[in-house]
Amino acid sequence: MKQKVYPSLDAAVADVPDGARIMFGGFGGAGFPNNLIQALARKGTKNITAISNNCGTREGELGLMFKNNQVKHVIASFPGPHANHFQDRYAAKEVTLELVPQGILCERMRAAAAGLTGFYTTVGVGTEVAGGKEERVIGGDRCILEMPIHADYAFIKAQKADELGNLTYRLAARNFNPIMAMAAKTTIVEAEEIVPVGSIDPENVITPAIFVHRIVQAKGLRYAG
Amino acid sequence: MPGDASQEKPVAAKPRLTREQIAQRAARELTDGAYVNLGWGIPNLIAEYLPKGITVHFHSENGILGMGPRAKPGQEDFDQVDAMKVPVTLIPGASFFHQADAHLMTRGGHLDVAVLGGFQVSEKGDLANWKIPGAKGSGGIGGAMDIAAGAKTLIVCMEHTTKDGAPKIVKQCTYPLTGLACVDVIVTDLAVIDVKPEGLVLREVAPGWTAEEVQKATGAPLIAKSRVAEITFV
């Protein structure tokens, strides 16, 4: 069996190069791969394009990436009320931002995962997000063309992984993680618990192992606020 | 409708509904069994004021259907939070799913009602609720555009005017838009208004207010019956 379990967080992110496009799971303080983010901070990868719902909670979550000036571009739906490190870099024009409606962010990643080359939607028609996008009328509705969002890596937080990479998540910590896990070329998972193959009931697998490339055990980290 | 100013209380001094009362009035638009998404701000207060005896299935964009009240102190689970990061409880029959399915529900017309806050609503039902022009920082859209585009019924809860007294219900939005022609009902501290093909129909006014006074505080024409009911509270 191909070995997907990595001995350490640092080993799991050791090859992430400058300029990488990385998806980060998490929403509302739940389901963030905070241990992997810290490992990436230690490695010091620069010029990252970060794809995530928000832009950190003070120094927590993606906040650390902005504090360290490791990110040059963000694709996000809601930077968030405590994303002060991001806002500082944004105001200083050290980072650029593409704001995407949250569900469209999901579907653009899912399009990448599914091998689809784009889709039309009524969401955002007539708003700032429609700027520069092809518009057409389908079934009487104005629609805009949205393109897939691809990534080199996805950083994922799971509750349980088996050694093959089948994943489960806990409660609403699932959020963006299963979508991002499917969309990236290389999916790196920090899991609270790694269990032998066969110990997750196949009916309960949420992310099938085909989407997972690296697994590392780490006790979840959470930031308040 | 200019009246005799000496006999009228100045409009600005008349009591308006509180944020809680706006939520309480909006809660009465919800029906038994409805699947409902509540946005930030006043809409988030609505769950406290559900009419007795009805069950509403609250949806959260991070992948929960069947949210109950906020978790009591000491019983919070921070993996079970609503869209405002607040730990919540679940009602029997609740479920979890990922964010794409959560927005499939908002966009795909599966939610019966969504309630959002608003900065401006136009007479055509356009909504602006995510960015104030000139405000510091990047702004953020979150799920509002998906929700606005897809809910079967979209209710907007907001104050009728800005802090400076400018109307928030306008002929055309000047703030960055969230969605075009998406609002169905507006509940404010002065009125309940239906957005109809013929225009903005004044359904109810705040206690003590007349249709004429509400019109003065509104930046677009209101269609009013000769007698408009007052908002009542039980």
Protein model, in words:
The complex is a heterodimer of chains A (225) and B (234). Chain A has 225 residues and is of the alpha/beta class. Chain A has a domain at 19-99 and 150-217: Glutaconate Coenzyme A-transferase. Chain A is 21% helix and 27% strand. Chain A has 6 helices and 11 strands. Chain A has helices spanning 9-12, 34-43, 63-67, 84-91, 102-114, 177-183, and strands spanning 21-24, 48-51, 71-76, 96-99, 119-121, 135-138, 141-146, 151-162, 167-168, 184-195, 214-217. The longest helix of chain A has 13 residues, at 102-114. In chain A, 54% of the residues are buried. The mean pLDDT of chain A is 97. With 234 residues, chain B is an alpha/beta fold. Chain B has one domain (18-230): Glutaconate Coenzyme A-transferase (3-Layer(aba) Sandwich). Chain B has helices at residues 19-27, 99-107, 144-150, 211-216; strands spanning 35-38, 57-60, 64-70, 88-96, 113-117, 120-122, 127-128, 153-157, 169-170, 185-187, 191-196, 199-205, 222-223, 229-230. The two termini of chain B are 31 Å apart. At the A-B interface, α4, α5 and α6 of A face α2 and α3 of B.
Q: Percent helix among the residues of chain B?
A: 10-25%
Shape of chain B: globular
Sheet-strand content of chain B, in percent, reads: 25-35%
Q: Would you state the CATH class of chain B?
A: Alpha Beta
The overall pLDDT average of chain B reads 94
Q: How would you sum up the major sheet of chain A?
A: 8 strands, mixed
Oligomer: heterodimer
Gross CATH architecture of chain B: 3-Layer(aba) Sandwich
What are the secondary-structure elements of chain A, in order, as H or E?
HEHEHEHEHEEEEEHEE
Work out the helicity level of chain A.
10-25%
Distance between the termini of chain A: 42 Å
Extended strand count of chain B: 14
- How many individual helices of chain A? 6
Structural class of chain A: alpha/beta
User: How many separate domains make up the residues of chain B?
Assistant: 1
Radius of gyration of chain B, in Å, reads 18 Å
CATH topology of the domain at 19-99 and 150-217 in chain A: Glutaconate Coenzyme A-transferase
What's the architecture of the domain at 19-99 and 150-217 in chain A, going by CATH?
3-Layer(aba) Sandwich
β-strand number of chain A: 11
